[in-house]
Design goal:
The chain has 623 residues and is an alpha+beta fold.
């Protein structure tokens, strides 16, 4: 009944949508299999995209030609650029989103592509011939065949929901778990594990007293995620901040004996950087209060997401404790928070393309690989979709390095180090974060997306024009001189030492606390040059300022990248038996045989492999 496809994508969450979209845009015939057509791209947890490091990932997805940035812009209800008080490597865009609209926009995007077909059913197993996947088996007995398969199962694999002392199967509240697929994969030699995540209660916004909370508005001049022609917001909804207190904590503690977190019912590991409220008051007993973010779920709903109050305590304990939070005195609860345990597959079983090492043409993306977060899942889906298409059509694999993108950092961390707890991206994980800024994702990646057939001519022309304008402004600022008479009054107000002779504008810009706006006050020539570029592309002005101000740091980091690339150029054969190489430590032999690193650079990042072990490998390679 169903034809053979180039790519089958199982699961229509953030990873699945990006995978299907990418492969289909590149020309593959794609079947997207989902258990529920009404929950495509469901925001299972908070109604937001981006944030610290995550915003950089969304920008990178968009630059390559993915869909998350466009969908986020079209469904946004608030936009904020985080960390503006810090350096530009830390600036991180974030949107608050309309949950329903986000899902609809993703479905519209996928339905516009004639290469995407949909099928509603549960995948219960993979079909393998000669150690190569050839299709999937579905719950109603249907077998569908394809050249490649991408599994993006989220929290649904043998999902078990915990609410107080109650347990019930499910991949999400109100939706059944996916069964059979884990067992099928294990039969083919894969190692599975269990992880845990959680979600907070949803409440009725009409029952809250916002006067007792602190309003958190969006940016006055909101930007957006996508480099395309999506429109920035003209109106925004406010979020609010409130706090727990000692009374809240005391009430929560009354349920600890019935908490699956503490009574042994939950045996798996949860996300370290997004702990439950009961975990927070247990681990940080000295803290008198914890922050609660009150986030609207959309334009046309009163439902509120209580960010910071993730919990699996009994619902009556959740409710009683929430009523002690300022503004929540008369709260009405729509649904309680809960924890969920699910199967994942340690990602050391994958190649950098996200193809599995055990079964050819089979790809994993998203929470099945041990990650947490929409953005982490989406970028994996994009990369798996790209590589499934490339493999189907006998084209070269597409891999991003750690110096190319946060996406490259994430995948390399997973493949090389593995994870035994839900992996979340942070700027601190990227050793080249000055190069991997949110403002230059288009310049880093759009040409790669264009070569793949994901980014179009318009996107490439736009980034080329931005690069030209950026360079033109940099050259102008290097040539314009500023005299002491022009500069010193402004420098005094900024607490910066005065100049005694004419200095180039670019030199003054490198000083701490001096911004391009200050130079425009000093010099009409600078003001004229900036305004000329700004009228064509304001982003080019921001880019030029960053590149000049942090030029020394950028150059040093680029030198480090060049050193890394020399190690990455030394390829290691997958057939090497490291146990036979003399002078390697026992731990290194075990780890290297398990990971089978593709390059010497990757080998150097394997936990337990020392610099002396790398020297031994260099000798082994005849270097």
């Amino acid at each position: 009944m169903l034809a053979k496809y180039d790519v089958i994508v199982v699961g229509a969450g953030h990873a699945g949508c990006e995978a299907a979209n990418a492969a289909a845009k590149m020309g593959s015939r794609v079947l997207l299999v989902t258990m529920n057509m009404n929950t495509i791209a469901q925001m299972s947890c908070n109604p937001a995209m981006g944030g610290v490091a995550k915003g950089q990932i969304v920008r990178e997805i968009d630059a390559l030609g993915g869909g998350s940035g466009i969908v986020s812009d079209k469904s946004a209800i608030q936009f904020r650029m985080l960390n503006l008080s810090k350096g530009p490597a830390m600036w991180s865009p974030r949107t608050q989103n309309d949950r329903v609209l986000f899902s609809l926009e993703w479905r519209y995007l996928l339905e516009k592509n004639p290469n995407v077909d949909f099928w509603q059913d549960m995948c219960i197993g993979i079909i393998v011939e000669n150690n190569c996947v050839v299709g999937v088996e579905l719950g109603m007995g249907t077998k569908v065949f394809a050249t490649t398969v991408v599994l993006t199962n989220g929290t649904f694999l043998n999902g078990l929901i915990h609410l107080g002392e109650k347990q019930f199967g499910g991949g999400r509240a109100g939706e059944k778990a996916a069964t059979g697929l884990t067992e099928s994969l294990v039969q083919h030699g894969f190692i599975a594990g269990r992880m845990k995540t959680g979600t907070p209660p949803r409440v009725d916004g009409r029952s809250l007293n916002y006067a007792l909370m602190e309003a958190q508005q969006g940016d006055q001049n909101p930007s957006k995620f996508s480099y395309s022609d999506t429109a920035p917001l003209t109106k925004q909804l406010a979020c609010h901040i409130t706090y727990t207190n000692e009374h809240t904590h005391d009430l929560l503690r009354t349920g600890f004996d019935r908490s699956p977190m503490f009574n042994g019912a939950i045996k798996s590991t949860g996300p370290r950087y997004c702990p439950s409220i009961e975990d927070k008051i247990s681990r940080f007993a000295d803290r008198e209060r914890h922050q609660i973010f009150v986030e609207p779920e959309g334009w046309n709903t009163v439902e509120i997401y209580v960010n910071g109050f993730s919990t699996s305590l009994p619902e009556e304990v959740q409710y009683a404790a929430m009523k002690t939070i300022p503004g929540f005195e008369n709260v009405k609860m729509f649904r309680p928070g809960y924890a969920i345990e699910y199967d994942y597959f340690p990602p050391t079983q994958l190649k950098h393309t996200l193809e599995t090492k055990l079964v050819e043409n089979l790809f994993f993306a998203g929470q099945i690989n041990g990650t947490t977060g929409y953005e982490e899942a989406a970028c994996q889906g994009l990369m798996a979709g790209i590589n499934a298409h490339q493999k189907t059509h006998n084209k070269d694999p597409f891999v991003l390095s750690r110096s190319d993108a946060y996406i490259g950092v994430l995948i390399d961390d997973l493949i090389t180090k593995g994870t035994n707890e839900p992996y979340r991206m942070f700027t601190s994980r990227a050793e080249f974060r000055i190069l991997l800024r949110q403002d230059n994702a288009d310049e880093r990646l759009t040409h790669l997306g264009y070569q793949l057939g994901l980014a179009d001519d318009t996107a490439l022309q736009k980034v080329e024009k931005k690069t030209q304008l950026t360079e033109a402004l940099k050259q102008s600022l290097r040539q314009i001189g500023i005299t002491p008479a022009e500069a010193n009054r402004v420098l005094q107000t900024k607490g910066s030492s005065e100049i005694t002779q004419q200095v180039k504008a670019s030199t003054i810009l490198t000083r701490p606390h001096i911004a391009l706006d200050d130079l425009m006050i000093m010099s009409d020539k600078v003001k004229e040059a900036v305004k000329q570029i700004e009228s064509q592309n304001p982003l080019a002005v921001e880019q030029a300022e960053i590149l000049l101000k942090y030029e020394g740091y950028i150059e040093r980091e680029q030198e480090q990248v060049d050193k890394l690339q020399r190690l990455e150029a030394l390829v290691l054969s997958p057939t090497i038996d490291y146990s036979e190489i003399k002078n390697l430590s026992i731990e290194s032999k075990e780890k290297l045989n398990k990971i089978k690193p593709a390059t010497l650079g990757q080998a150097a990042r394997v936990s337990g492999v020392s610099p002396s072990d790398i020297s031994v490998l260099l000798v082994h390679l005849g270097r």
